């Protein structure tokens, strides 16, 4: 089908929202006359998400359901959805309708004008805690410096031309940060602002700790900036040691004794902490290298359904 839009929807314990999300997207896209398919990826949910996807497929043959063998994470679900999408243009959005479906129409119109990547940019971060907003601001500040692209209010809500999707899927690395990678590949890009809506049902799957882990994992996956900390920490320790040596020599030649125990203890604690932290950062990078060289797939698909029928044998399994 010419100019078909594939909408990729990662879903983890979203059983309460699947039916409404599919219904709203169908109404919006059919009303705008946009040919579409909905690719819902069940990321090892423990609720009735898969059953709801099957129900949606029976009601709408444009629904393609992808089921993981277990939970592999949102990034894997996004890539699995893009691998199964067959549209000329592919959109990625959350399954909880916090990304407004009406914005897809504006994005689609921009794609028709020749833009190949249409980024969804948040006007505001909605109702988030102060700590969450500050942490997100710090993380995206780092990512903006690394990529050279303003990612301060970036999101996973975006639309990409088929050529862009194919280039992203061709990248061999296991650990990939989709939000930054879609900007890194380049192509003709524009952005659309949207208001984050409140979740209608269910709870957010992101705790503060999971967000911290997600942020650090993606920083390591996309940049070597944390390794520069090791060099900086080494430089700071060297300068501190140099100043302490000078201070000790001045005290010695002026006939004053240097208080040894406290000074030695502080120096050992400072250097020991810097070494352990540096080893931790280096070790994390080595762990990610180990994961890459094993060449395990990003995800494992156990079943693929379209319109209520099993199409697992004929669909693409591009977990690599």
Automatic annotation (TrEMBL):
Lineage: Bacteria, Bacillati, Bacillota, Clostridia, Lachnospirales
Gene3D superfamilies referenced in this protein's UniProt entry, alphabetically: Spore Coat Polysaccharide Biosynthesis Protein SpsA, Chain A
Protein's UniProt keywords contain Repeat: no
Annotated Glycosyltransferase 2-like domain residues: 6-168
Membrane topology per record: Multi-pass membrane protein
UniProt keyword Transmembrane, yes or no: yes
SUPFAM superfamilies xrefs: Nucleotide-diphospho-sugar transferases
Its EC number(s): 2.4.-.-
Protein name: Glycosyltransferase family 2 protein
Transmembrane residue ranges: 229-253, 265-287
InterPro entries hit by this protein: Glyco_trans_2-like, Glycosyltransferase_2, Nucleotide-diphossugar_trans
Keywords annotated in UniProt: Glycosyltransferase, Membrane, Transferase, Transmembrane, Transmembrane helix
Pfam families (UniProt xref): Glycos_transf_2
Subcellular location: Membrane
GO MF term (any one): glycosyltransferase activity
Organism: Blautia intestinihominis
